[in-house]
Design goal:
The protein is α/β, with parallel strands linked by helices and 385 residues long. It is built from eleven helices and 13 strands. Strands 1, 2, 3, 4, 5, 8 and 9 form a seven-stranded mixed β-sheet that branches. α3 packs across α11, α5 packs across α9 and α8 runs parallel beside α9.
Length: 385
């Protein structure tokens, strides 16, 4: 199967909001639908022409893709599928939509991710006996150590110790991420990317992006004991939505062959759960090893859904990625991590850099890489059509 005849012609996202912040009163469908409709409007495609919607989401349950589809006014015949692959959900949804179009199952598909953690239903663990109380299951699906597996913070601490990544290096990476995100915002590089859900200034910018200095970063206490992982050098849970429109070759030609992205390849891989944070490295290497020999040093951008500065630094060191290529406008440490939408944001970021930007290179290419929890990761290679 080839994916050469499927084109991503539009990509948009909401501003990313902190938990209990910008999107605190927006249910998932209220957050996602306006972004979806604006993406279709950018593409010049009517909602009635959409054949399928593929959504990444990790918390809502009951196939929220169908609810969003109906609220957005997509036709009743439009199929709706929800994918839950942790933070790789949105990217997996985009890959699925591209393949459906390439296989001739759809002429127009919308795909991406949405997560409203602020309004998501709470989950309770069933009591083990009549004498135990129910307990909440947190965002990280913590089990109070009963499985013996490392928590995400413990895994990051172990990786930092093994690779010798000191606290100051992590804090400096986090500051750089915020600076890049601030510069991108101030230069209005995100203006045509973010959908303002209300006519208010705060709807046009990612809420968690700040201008911290080293003293600010040093003030964060370690999450575990005397470790190096803090709330400042990790990506925090957040709310957000991001979508792309994928069309077939005939539709693309009818639209006038606008600047677009095509999917050049994918790599989905698993590693040992203990090496979870290094799964994105394995996925990027696998993608580079596919037929055609993708050269990582020729990419204009690598968008990584980093969970922590430790993971990003390890990724950069392992692959020899240049500073200006990895998350050039800041990453999740600055923006926040909207779970099922997190990796879809990566695709929107690449669309801005490779297709939307008037100064984009005609042969520009980049990759989006996201872990998927439990020792899995997904990497997609995009290039300008």
């Amino acid at each position: 199967m080839t994916v050469a005849n499927a084109y991503i012609v539009a990509a948009r996202r909401s501003a990313i909001g902190r938990l209990g912040g910008l999107h605190r009163n927006r249910r998932l469908e209220d957050l996602a639908s306006p972004v979806l409709l604006q993406t279709l409007d950018d593409a010049g495609v009517e909602a009635t022409r959409v054949d399928t919607l593929v959504l990444g989401n990790t918390t809502a349950g009951n196939n929220p893709a169908r609810l969003i589809s109906l609220l957005a006014g997509l036709p009743d015949r439009c199929t709706a599928l929800t994918i839950d692959r942790h933070t790789a959900s949105g990217l997996e949804a985009i890959d699925a939509a591209v393949r459906r179009v390439a296989q001739g199952e759809a002429d127009v598909a919308v795909a991406g991710g949405a997560e409203s953690l602020s309004t998501a239903p709470w989950r309770l663990a069933k009591p083990r006996t009549l004498f135990h109380m129910p307990r909440f299951i947190g965002l990280a699906q913590a089990d109070n150590g009963e499985s013996g597996e490392q928590t995400a913070v413990e895994a990051a601490e172990a990786l930092a110790a093994r690779l010798g990544i000191a606290r100051n290096a992590q804090d400096e990476y986090a500051i750089t991420s915020h600076i890049r995100a601030t510069l991108a915002r101030d230069a209005r590089r995100l203006a045509r990317e973010i959908v303002a859900l209300k006519a208010k200034p705060e709807e046009n910018r990612d809420e968690l992006v700040d201008e911290p200095d080293i003293e600010d970063m040093e003030s964060f206490p370690p999450i575990l004991g005397d470790g190096s992982i803090t709330a400042g050098n990790t990506s925090l849970p957040a709310d957000g939505a991001a979508f792309v429109v994928v069309v077939s070759e005939p539709v693309y030609r009818k639209l006038g062959s606008p600047p677009a992205l095509r999917l050049g390849g994918r790599a989905s891989i698993g590693v040992a759960p203990a090496a979870d944070l290094e799964a994105p490295i394995a996925a990027a290497r696998a993608l580079a090893g596919r037929p055609g020999r993708l050269s990582l040093d020729k990419l204009q951008a690598i968008e990584l859904a980093e969970t922590s500065a430790v993971q990003a630094i390890a990724f950069q060191r392992a692959l020899g990625v240049a500073d200006e290529v990895l998350n050039p406008d800041g990453g999740q440490i600055a923006r926040g991590q909207p779970a099922g939408a997190a990796s879809a944001v990566l695709a929107v970021r690449l669309f801005t850099r490779l297709a939307r930007d008037e100064a984009a290179m005609p042969d520009g290419q980049g990759i989006a890489v996201s872990g998927a929890a439990g020792g899995q990761a997904l990497a997609l290679h995009f290039h300008r059509a």
